[in-house]
Amino acid sequence: MPKIHAATVADHRSRQRAALLDAARALLAEGDASKVTFAEVARRTGLARNSVYKYFPDRAHLLTEVVREAAPHWTERIRTALAAAGDSPEDRVAAHVTAQLEMVRDGEHRIARATADAQDAAALRAGAEAAHRALLDPLVGALAELGDDAPLMTARLLQGFVNAATTALESGADYAAVADRTVRLAVAALRGLAPLPRADR
Fold it and tell me: What is the C-alpha separation between 33 and 174, in angstroms, rounded?
């Protein structure tokens, strides 16, 4: 019986912690990290404010954990898009750019962006930057497989198109128009490099 009780308590704590992270994630997705307070997170989960301290010692730990848990989801979403793309470098780049812009459209980027702009920014920026680096990993791997001799540099430069597109979308630009132009620009930039070997060569 004690083991069953311990397991039940652990399961309850796991669900409560997940609920707190979901509440913080929802607040960040709304675009303002300053709204992520223990009082507001507790209110949204129906817990007492003091209960939040049982799971996270302070706000910085809560926010950092939101980003840490979100990053693998973002990376997997991009990997899935790349796996479904064609074998050519152009198809891979188009899939990578499109997947990221779809996440921007869905509000996912606001989590890292809002966290990076938070008052307690030093540790949080590190977490957000790590998440952004993780987003490049699938493209870096694809470019390396395709024969790029500086895949990280190429991926970072191509990411500049996505960053500019994100700014445009945040300013209210039309998603379809921005996404189409960004994909075409990124693909054109890739073609401007020394030719990468294609999969059928």
Answer: 25
Residue type for 133, please? R
Task: Say which CATH class 2-191 falls into.
Answer: mainly alpha
Q: If phi over 0 gives left and psi between -120 and 50 gives alpha, with beta otherwise, what is residue 107?
A: left
Residue 30 to residues 8, 23, 37, 185: CA-CA distances in angstroms? 33, 11, 14, 29
Q: Is the pTM of this model over 0.85?
A: no
Rounded to whole angstroms, the maximal C-alpha distance in the chain is: 68
Q: Which of 127, 106, 103 is closest to 116 using CA atoms?
A: 127
pLDDT by 10s per residue, the chain, length 201:
455 566 687 787 888 999 999 998 888 877 677 788 999 999 999 988 998 999 999 888 888 888 778 777 888 888 899 889 988 888 989 999 999 999 888 877 777 666 555 555 555 566 666 667 777 888 888 888 888 889 999 999 999 999 999 999 989 999 999 999 999 999 998 888 755 555 444
What is the residue extent of each domain of the chain? 2-191
C-beta atoms surrounding 171 within 10 Å: 8
- Side chain identity at 10, as an amino acid letter? A
